[in-house]
Write a structure and sequence with these properties.
By secondary structure, the protein is mainly beta. It has a single domain, classed as Jelly Rolls, CATH 2.60.120.10. The chain contains 2 helices and 11 strands. The strands form 3 sheets. Strands 1-2-9-4-7 form a 5-stranded antiparallel beta sheet. The chain is globular, with a radius of gyration of 20 Å.
């Protein structure tokens, strides 16, 4: 027998206040309907899928980013926003730090986390394949602060080590 999940006051998670779920429920945004009118960084093309205006999102922004073969973005950061990049196709090379002195690579199926204010640069590591990624940010503001950074010549490779499941 299952547990009783009813709430006497009628306002628990099983009995939310009346909402027009047709208008305020799930939204499916077709992949060919993304909006390129969002903050851009030289060297990449961003397009918004989920934001306040398009889907009613309050706390997150999601979209795509494409970087042409052998291209790299300018150095930039996104203020106090956290960013997650999911690599769909291609090979991403990320550089970060005050002088872009650190580097790591990611391929299809990999996730990249960029904390707030981290100066970074996305690079398409492939000379002949477009880098295609999904991008999610922790807020709605289209914060892109483009930076004028003199990068170090040879960045230090940094490999991620799982802090929870160290072996």
């Amino acid at each position: 027998m299952g547990a009783d999940h009813s709430h006497e006051d009628g306002h628990g998670r099983d009995n939310p206040p009346a909402v027009d779920w047709r208008a305020h429920g799930v939204k499916v945004i077709p992949g060919d309907s993304l909006d390129p009118n969002t903050a851009q960084t030289p060297g990449m093309n961003r397009a918004a899928a989920i934001n306040r205006a398009r889907a009613g999102a309050q706390k997150i922004w999601a979209g795509t980013v494409h970087i042409h073969p052998d291209a790299k973005t300018g150095a930039h950061h996104h203020g106090d926003l956290e960013s997650i990049i999911y690599v769909v196709k291609g090979r991403a090379r990320m550089r970060w730090g005050e002088h872009l002195e650190y580097v790591a690579e990611a391929g299809p199926g990999d996730f990249i986390f960029v904390p707030p204010y981290v100066p970074h640069q996305e690079i398409n590591a492939s000379p002949d394949e477009v880098l295609e990624c999904v991008l999610v940010r922790s807020g709605q503001d289209p914060v892109v602060v483009n930076l004028d950074i003199e990068p170090v010549e040879k960045p230090e490779a940094v490999k991620w080590i799982d802090p929870i499941h160290r072996t």
